[in-house]
Design a protein that fits this description.
The complex is a heterodimer. Helix content of chain A is 30%, strand content 23%. Chain A is an alpha+beta fold. Chain A is globular. The chains are: A alpha+beta, B alpha+beta.
């Protein structure tokens, strides 16, 4: 149970929030919308002495697009807002689509981008998309501000690279002219549920069809979301079916899932391969956000 | 801690622990139309409106409702009798467990839009996450459509 002297605060600025998080005593938790924090409290997985709610900090609620297409998204922008935001739909359609698929409308009305990143549950939809888009995390803490690549942010199950007393302020999605991004989620049960596997793909192609940059990330098949580095080798090529197969095989290889109600480890590995195939093929075909192609070979 | 907000159009105040959930606060104030069923934000029975947005009150800290405008199923039904009438006339309920959530979700859909008509997909997407244990979704969707048309 939470400490009897639990304190809830709603700071108005990042500086106040950092002060209220109070450094490295490990007693404080920063909260975005609170959907995950409420679950953690209910299950006695956390026992904070202080809950610092970031929902009243105006600066963290902003979503800005630079003229080159770089997105700077405040940590407490909700998934509902993210799914509807025009700049996100234009420059990072996989992120807009994924945000609109998390849970149900009530969760999306409250849950925040920062929370979806910091919670660190590997089954979540948002982290693999941020990985594929090579996002960077802006962080504020007792020793000032710093930036962490999303690729180094998740260090294990529910574990992140945030130091005690730090909070996420913004997520930066770098611009990449001509980038296509898709997110494919496989939900054999209910669409409301966590995916058995989620695959995010991002591809930039030159005018002659050659790939200049490709990234692919998996969710649900390891203690943290993971990048499939083999996708990077598509650079310089006009990828064909063999290239897609090679990345799909690498995804199956990289996947390190556990048996649970969403599927056996063996099944999840096979599905990582299949849904990588679908996501990558859709992305290379120029689809955006939600891949609408069917199974391989169809 | 003291929490002050507007509940069904009237000022409300409660003293609650900092980790109290909104569902418990509301029920403690006698508004028992809001119920905790699944407790994990999946089923929809605890849905309330917070500043016009549908929220799972079983996963929402009461402290975050400070200064907010909160509406529950019974408050919305009193405010707009057409809401309940549509569900009654279209038989949008069987056992009744999911009805409070379906009704609040329908009210949220109506508040968030300019025009009365909605497509079937819009309605189903919007009501998603309100689990009808009787699987009576057809008449629930008809009820929502009838309610929107009545406005």
């Amino acid at each position: 149970m939470p400490a009897d002297d639990l304190v809830f605060s709603a700071p108005a600025t990042v500086a106040e929030a950092v002060a209220q998080l109070g450094g490295d005593d490990g007693e404080a938790i920063a909260m975005g919308g609170g959907t995950s924090v409420a679950m953690l409290l209910k299950n006695d997985l956390i026992e904070p002495g202080r809950i610092v709610w970031l929902g009243k900090i105006p600066g963290l609620r902003q979503l800005m697009a630079a003229s080159d297409g770089t997105l700077r998204i405040g940590a407490t922008v909700t998934l509902r807002e993210l799914a509807a935001a025009e700049p996100v739909r234009e420059h990072a359609p996989a992120l807009a689509y994924a945000a609109g698929q998390v849970g149900n409308p009530r969760v999306r009305a409250v849950a925040t981008l920062g929370g979806a990143l910091v919670h660190g549950d590997p089954r979540q939809d948002i982290p693999p998309v941020l990985l594929a888009l090579e996002a960077r995390v802006r962080v504020a803490g007792p020793s000032g501000e710093r930036e962490i690549p999303v690729a180094g942010f998740h260090t294990g199950f529910l574990e992140t690279a945030l130091a005690a007393g730090e909070l996420v302020t913004d997520i930066i999605i770098p611009a990449a002219p001509g980038r296509r991004s898709v997110y494919a989620r496989f939900t054999p049960g209910s669409e409301d549920d966590y995916p058995t596997v989620g695959v995010a793909a991002s591809v930039v192609r030159a005018g002659d069809g050659r790939v200049t940059r490709a990234t692919l990330a998996l969710g649900g098949v390891g203690p943290a979301p993971l990048l499939v580095s083999r996708a990077g080798e598509l650079a310089g090529r006009v990828p064909g079916a063999g290239d897609i197969e090679a990345v799909a095989a690498a995804a199956e290889q990289a996947a390190d899932p556990v048996d649970d109600r969403l599927g056996s480890a063996r099944y999840k590995k096979a599905m990582a391969r299949e849904w990588t195939r679908r996501a990558l093929r859709a992305c290379l075909a120029g689809e955006r956000g939600r891949p609408d192609s069917g199974p391989a070979g169809s | 801690m003291k929490i002050s907000f507007t509940l069904n159009g009237a000022p409300a105040q409660a003293d609650a622990p900092p980790d109290a959930l909104l569902v418990d606060l509301i029920r403690g104030l006698g508004h028992t139309g809001t119920k905790e069923a699944c407790g994990v934000g999946v089923c929809g029975v605890c849905t309330v409106l917070v500043n016009d947005l549908p929220v799972s009150s079983c996963l929402y800290l009461a402290a975050c409702a400070e200064g907010a405008e909160v509406w529950t199923a019974e408050g919305l039904a009193r405010e707009d009798p057409a809401l309940i009438r549509a569900f009654a006339e279209c038989e949008g309920m069987q056992c009744g467990i999911c009805t409070p959530g379906q009704v609040v979700a329908a009210a949220a859909l109506a508040r968030g839009r300019e025009r009365p008509e909605a497509t079937e997909d819009e309605i189903r997407e919007h009501q998603s996450g309100n689990l009808c244990r009787c699987t009576g979704y057809q008449t629930i969707a008809e009820s929502v459509r009838a309610y929107l048309a009545s406005r």
